[in-house]
């Protein structure tokens, strides 16, 4: 491709609304342009990268036995109402009406659509298992679209769905696609982790997120410093490996703590460490009130609380509700003398404390020398807190460290969450009808492009991994008005093209400095510069990532390029 024929509008200045490197560089290099908030056009160079990622995804999904198809982006509300998600998915679902006032949604995901197709077409165990996928635009009405391609209102996604007659078959497909996903992100050159995650609005259980390690990531990953354990911080279990404090239990005593609201203020006022206090928070778990007790230095994990109760909704009780039930404000709650209609549950760490402090359920007062079992009873001890850096890894190997991550893929074991609601069943060997067991597997294709840029750039521009680079080689003729430079550059361009190498040829009538700056910004892996030694047949070859340079004779160029591409 000749650069003079390409829509490639590069910019020198950083766009004012671009906060992160991938957004800045993809706009500056002419790969994308914003149409409206959260909506982007992929210009030719951006489309080439997008297609490279799509091709890798297709190859690995096909190799894993999945069938590609395409489903409509416009979905009737009736399908969503069958599962109840029309009301529960939230404001991110873009809803519209047609001219006949029928309700539709722009597809945020396609569980309902594919389940409706399969229930109509598959009725026997003989046709299972089945895995299908599509690569298609998705739509979500993000409250605050930001970070360019990382959080848009329209984005390209690969979504796959599998259907099974038993959980053993689901496990096999899940493991196969876990491997396929790992292969995809490795082939894209990414440094990533597969982490235990929460299924959220998708339903089901047993799920992994594929997270690209990056400081601008919106999710926190908890991982072991010595093993392969990794989990989203919301899902990382905490081992019940505490040691009971030694010493004599002292007499319970109520003390005045005027104007001391926070755990740290109470700890400082009473002269003890934060870990020696007990924190109590009132939650509304579906239709019941639950008092959750943790150590003062720990934070309640509402995802774990939700999973413990298998609840639909978990939220902090309002101040009005708390005052009405507990007769005290937020800063004075505790597990002693709790009303009978409030359940008290506690994190594992609570049962190991000795002579702790806690709220007295009376504003401005706390108890000291509080001991579990003697002074209060707990309905159930469970893992209810967020894991912390320095905690023992749940697999018993090493300690926990934190890293930021960008989610680029997510796989779920849905079970019968959708098939039961939508009556998608099959007949088994005995002629009995059973709900199909499902899996769901997503990759943010356009999001992956941005994640690659976040990991592969320097102060001058992008440094694409060869597998997803828009071109493999960038040929620059520094002065196209000089016949020897133009002719040698065109000869190299045609030779490489004929050998199957993807080449961008900068044949523009621009200054050398402009061409070098644009080349660095675009980030093609290998640059061949035809300059002053063109009459001798020599060019300069530069590897974008390492900065390594060497002078080559034109007769050696194809060998060097071929070797470089073979090693990618």
β-strand percent reads 25-35%
Radius of gyration: 30 Å
Mean pLDDT: 94
Helical stretch tally: 14
> Which spans of ≥5 residues are poorly predicted at pLDDT below 50?
none
CATH superfamily of the largest domain: Bira Bifunctional Protein, Domain 2
β-strand number: 31
Global geometry = globular
Secondary structure: helix percent: 25-40%
| Secondary-structure class | alpha+beta
**CATH topology term of the largest domain:** BirA Bifunctional Protein, domain 2
CATH architecture level-2 label of the largest domain: 2-Layer Sandwich
Number of domains: 3
Please outline the major beta sheet. Answer: 9 strands, mixed
Distance between the termini: 22 Å
CATH class of the largest domain: Alpha Beta
Helix and strand arrangement:
Blueprint: H1 21-28, E1 32-36, E2 39-42, H2 44-63, E3 67-68, E4 74-76, H3 77-83, H4 85-88, E5 94-97, E6 103-106, H5 111-121, E7 130-139, E8 154-164, H6 167-187, E9 192-196, E10 205-213, E11 219-224, E12 230-232, E13 253-256, H7 263-270, E14 278-285, E15 288-295, H8 302-309, E16 314-316, H9 319-326, E17 343-347, E18 356-359, E19 365-370, E20 380-382, E21 400-415, H10 417-422, E22 425-427, E23 433-435, E24 437-444, H11 445-455, E25 457-458, E26 461-462, E27 473-477, H12 483-498, E28 503-506, H13 512-522, E29 526-530, E30 538-543, E31 549-553, H14 557-566
Parallel strand pairs: 3-7, 15-17, 17-20, 27-28, 27-29
Antiparallel strand pairs: 1-2, 4-6, 5-6, 7-8, 8-24, 9-10, 10-21, 11-12, 11-21, 13-19, 14-15, 14-16, 18-19, 21-24, 22-23, 25-26, 29-30, 30-31
Helix pairs in contact: 1-11, 2-6, 2-11
Family: Belongs to the class-II aminoacyl-tRNA synthetase family. ProS type 1 subfamily.
GO molecular function: aminoacyl-tRNA deacylase activity; ATP binding; catalytic activity, acting on a protein; proline-tRNA ligase activity; transferase activity
EC number: 6.1.1.15
């Amino acid at each position: 491709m000749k650069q003079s024929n390409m829509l490639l509008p590069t910019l020198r200045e950083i766009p004012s609304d671009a906060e992160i490197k991938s957004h800045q560089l993809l706009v500056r290099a002419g790969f994308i342009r914003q149409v409206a908030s959260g909506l982007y056009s992929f210009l030719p160079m951006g489309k080439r990268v997008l297609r490279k990622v799509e091709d890798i995804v297709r190859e690995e999904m096909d190799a894993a036995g999945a069938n590609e198809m395409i489903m409509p982006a416009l979905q009737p509300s009736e399908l969503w109402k069958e599962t109840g998600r029309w009301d529960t998915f939230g404001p991110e679902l873009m809803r519209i009406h047609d001219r006949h006032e029928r309700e539709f949604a722009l597809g945020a995901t396609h569980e309902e659509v594919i389940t409706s197709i399969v229930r109509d077409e598959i009725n026997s165990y003989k046709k299972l298992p089945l895995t299908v996928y599509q690569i298609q635009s998705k739509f979500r009405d993000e409250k605050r679209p930001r970070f360019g391609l990382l959080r848009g209102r329209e984005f390209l996604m690969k979504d796959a769905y599998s259907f099974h007659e038993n959980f053993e078959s689901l496990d096999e497909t899940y493991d196969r696609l876990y491997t396929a996903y790992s292969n995809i992100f490795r082939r894209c050159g990414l440094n990533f982790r597969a982490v235990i995650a929460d299924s959220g609005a998708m339903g089901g259980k047993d799920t992994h997120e594929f997270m690209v390690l990056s400081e601008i990531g919106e999710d926190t990953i908890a991982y072991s410093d010595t093993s392969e354990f990794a989990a989203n911080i919301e899902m990382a279990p905490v081992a019940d490996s505490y040691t009971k404090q030694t010493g004599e239990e002292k007499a319970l005593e109520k003390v005045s703590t005027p104007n001391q609201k926070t755990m740290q203020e109470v700890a400082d006022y009473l002269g003890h460490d934060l870990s020696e206090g007990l924190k109590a928070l009132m939650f509304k778990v579906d239709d019941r009130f639950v008092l959750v007790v943790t150590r003062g230095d720990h934070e309640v994990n509402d995802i774990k609380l939700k999973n413990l109760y298998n609840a639909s909704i978990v939220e902090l009780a309002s101040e009005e509700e708390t005052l009405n039930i507990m007769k005290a404000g937020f800063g004075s709650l505790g597990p002693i003398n709790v009303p009978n209609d409030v359940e008290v549950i506690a994190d594992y760490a609570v049962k190991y404390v000795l002579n702790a402090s806690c709220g007295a359920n009376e504003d401005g007062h706390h108890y000291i020398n509080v001991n579990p079992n003697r002074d209060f009873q707990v309905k159930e001890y469970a893992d209810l807190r967020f894991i912390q850096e320095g905690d023992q890894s749940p697999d018993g190997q090493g300690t926990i460290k934190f890293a930021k991550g960008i989610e680029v893929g997510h796989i779920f074991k849905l079970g019968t969450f959708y098939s039961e609601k939508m009556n998608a069943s099959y007949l088994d060997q005995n002629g009995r009808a059973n709900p199909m067991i499902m899996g769901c597997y997503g990759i943010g294709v356009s999001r992956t492009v941005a994640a690659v840029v976040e990991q592969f750039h320097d102060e001058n521009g992008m440094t694409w991994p060869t597998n997803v680079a828009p071109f493999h080689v960038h040929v620059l003729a520094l002065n196209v008005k000089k016949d020897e430079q133009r002719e040698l550059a065109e000869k190299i361009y045609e030779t490489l093209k004929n050998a199957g190498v993807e080449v961008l040829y900068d044949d523009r009538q621009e200054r050398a400095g402009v061409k070098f700056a644009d080349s660095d910004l675009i980030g093609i892996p290998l640059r061949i510069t035809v300059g002053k030694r063109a009459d001798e047949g020599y060019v300069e070859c530069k590897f974008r990532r390492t900065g390594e340079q060497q002078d080559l004779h034109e007769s050696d160029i194809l060998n060097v390029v071929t070797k470089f591409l073979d090693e990618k």
